[in-house]
Amino acid sequence: MIVTDPAEAFRQNKQRVRETIAGYAAAAEYIEQERIERLRRMTDEEARANYAALMNFHESFKNDRDKEGLQRLEAWRLQEKVALRQAFEKVARARGLL
Questions:
Q1: Which H, E and C letters describe the chain, residue by residue?
Q2: pTM higher than 0.70, yes or no?
Q3: Under a CB-based contact definition with an 8 Å cutoff, are residues 3 and 12 in contact?
Q4: End-to-end alpha-carbon separation of the chain, Å?
Q5: Please, which residues have CB within 8 angstroms of residue 3's CB and are 6 or more apart in sequence?
Q6: Exposure check for the chain: N or C terminus, fewer CB within 10 A?
Q7: What is the per-residue pLDDT across 46-69, written as a single tens digit (0 to 9) for each?
Q8: Distances in whole angstroms, Cα of residue 51 to Cα of each of 37, 41, 43, 61
């Protein structure tokens, strides 16, 4: 249905923005809880290995003169977007919206 009344369109857009922000907040909370649980289970060795991998990534990206570093960064960004989408889906399922 196309809304022609500007006041109604504004009201609906405000509602969509509220719902979107609420969805992001719920997904962020879910992701944070997953992160807390993962960190609780992490051993000292795993923490050191993760830190070393992060530093290696940083060094390789900083010193990389071709596009390989940017490709790795883009792959990481894509993984983060997929994780956020999955969190949205889990929250929506838990709330009976899907």
A1: CCCCCHHHHHHHHHHHHHHHHHHHHHHHHHHHHHHHHHHHHCCHHHHHHHHHHHHHHHHHHHHCCCCHHHHHHHHHHHHHHHHHHHHHHHHHHHCCCC
A2: no
A3: yes
A4: 22
A5: 9, 12
A6: N
A7: 999 999 988 887 777 676 666 676
A8: 18, 16, 12, 15
